[in-house]
Design a protein that fits this description.
single chain; alpha+beta; Aminopeptidase; 9 helices; 11 strands
Length: 323
């Protein structure tokens, strides 16, 4: 999708967008309550991404965006694009996922060469990477090639569903006493708190524990501000961190929800739903037609109840050979 690769138009400033979205989300009528399951990254898929039969409110452009969008390079994000694969590296976010190999298109005999070439590029950076396969990955048995190199499916969420929701959808959520949404890019401490919530919710090791990690977090914050299209939210209840969520805006093509996480003690109160509603308000303001998200075994049912439709899939294979 060439259009989505171009630079996105400049959206409103992060702080103002967060305040406005939080206000609109808070005004939503209290109706259906969504039980918030543990945050996750990872199932199911429809036969074809182009089968837009039950999705009258979702444009064909949004479906194309969800299934074919390629993240452009940005401050702090290095992209190596070849005819056979696309390698994305974020040294200041040293997790498989942000560091990934996607859009793998090679002949069967070239699969081993691709794996060895990518590992050669990643090894000096000492970063883990996630091999992400899609329905058009070639060769079709690339997962078998990965296994021969000691790379196996992600154990908790081996497959995620690519899901979409039109920007005009209205998500109602129950009132949450003491609930607030903050712009996590506004200052270093808020950003660290949001990152800590995300790490805790996903069962990852906390970052920001050493001077080097704190410096990396601050570089990430400044890079995301400089990119212009990134939003990060911190949700609190009575002042205590409850959830965090991310959003990438690429108007007029679409937007991507990511990083939605709720701490265990606050699950079941509608925090996840409220954060989706706040981000959807930002999407409407940006002029994008809707959002795409990758839903895992636990998050997919929640997203489906909110109206998201499955239009594709991705499969994950973490590779820590360079670490």
């Amino acid at each position: 999708m060439a259009a989505a690769d171009s630079a996105a138009s400049t959206p409103p400033s992060s702080g103002e967008a967060v305040k406005e979205a939080a206000t609109k989300a808070a005004r939503a009528s209290p109706k259906a309550t969504a039980t918030v399951a543990p945050a996750t990254r990872g199932t199911s898929h429809r036969a074809r991404a182009r089968d837009n039969v039950r999705m009258a409110a979702v444009s064909q452009g949004l479906l194309e965006f969800a299934n074919h969008f390629r993240q452009p390079g940005a401050p702090g994000i290095e992209v190596v694009q070849t005819e056979r694969y696309r390698l994305t590296l974020q040294p200041d976010n040293p997790l498989p996922g942000p560091n990934s190999v996607t859009w793998i298109r090679c002949e069967g005999a070239g699969a081993d060469t691709v794996i060895e070439e990518v590992r050669g590029l990643v090894a000096p950076r000492r970063l883990p990477v996630m091999w992400i396969l899609d329905p058009q990955t070639r060769p079709a048995d690339f997962a078998t090639c990965l296994a021969a190199h000691g790379v196996h499916p992600e154990p908790h969420s081996p497959e995620v569903a690519v899901m979409v929701l039109g920007a005009e959808a209205r998500l109602e959520h129950p009132p949450i006493e003491g609930f607030e949404i903050h712009d996590a890019l506004a200052d270093a401490q808020t950003f660290r708190t949001a990152d800590a919530v995300n790490a805790e919710s996903f069962g990852e090791s906390p970052r920001g524990q050493t001077p080097e990690q704190l410096a990396a977090l601050e570089r990430r914050r400044h890079n995301q501000i400089a990119a212009g299209h990134r939003r990060v939210l911190l949700a609190t209840i009575e002042g205590e961190p409850a959830g965090s969520a991310g959003l990438n805006l690429y108007p007029p093509h679409g937007a991507i929800l990511n990083g939605g996480a709720v701490r265990e003690k606050f699950r079941g109160r509608g925090v996840y739903r409220a954060m989706v509603a706040a981000r959807l308000a930002m999407v409407r303001e940006s002029g994008a037609p809707g959002v795409s998200v990758w839903g895992g075994p636990m998050s997919k049912p929640i997203l489906a109840r909110l109206g998201f439709e499955t239009v594709g899939w991705r499969r994950f294979y973490p590779d820590r050979s360079a670490v």
